[in-house]
């Protein structure tokens, strides 16, 4: 895996994790009983974005290490995901004695 691939993988994992963490423990204007005129009662009042971004970074880092480790170790390869047998056979030069 190249450096750019590692950054892209981390960014994808980070944003997916952020979208999961974002709605956790949000206090809306309706929950607090302080609805600003012209806004929806479900609009967030207390969202703690900085804390959630740090939590997301920690979780994403752990997930990235696990996923990158699996990719780099070769436990799972692209050929393992070829369920419809569309890839060519493995050339003899790439076969391992294992």
Give a short overview.
The protein has 98 residues and is mainly alpha-helical. Helices cover 49% and strands 5% of the residues. The protein has a two-stranded antiparallel sheet with strand order 1-2.
Structural summary, described in words:
This protein is mainly alpha-helical. It has one domain (3-94). The chain contains three helices and two strands, in the order αβαβα. It has helices at 3-21, 29-32, 49-73, and strands at 27-28, 44-46. Helix 1 (3-21) packs across helix 3 (49-73). The longest helix has 25 residues, at 49-73. The mean pLDDT is 87.
What's the structural blueprint in terms of helices and strands?
Elements: H1 3-21, E1 27-28, H2 29-32, E2 44-46, H3 49-73
Antiparallel strand pairs: 1-2
Helix pairs in contact: 1-3
Distance, first to last CA: 22 Å
Mean pLDDT figure? 87
Number of strands: 2
Write down the Rg: 22 Å
Shape: elongated
Largest sheet, strands/sense/barrel: 2 strands, antiparallel
Strand adjacency order, main sheet: 1-2
Q: Report strand %.
A: 5-15%
Task: Classify the helix fraction into a percent range.
Answer: 40-55%
Low-pLDDT sequence parts: none
Look at the helices and sheets and give the structural class: mainly alpha
Give the domain tally. 1
Number of helices: 3
Order of helices and strands: HEHEH
Structure characteristics:
98 residues; 3 helices; mainly alpha; two-stranded antiparallel ribbon
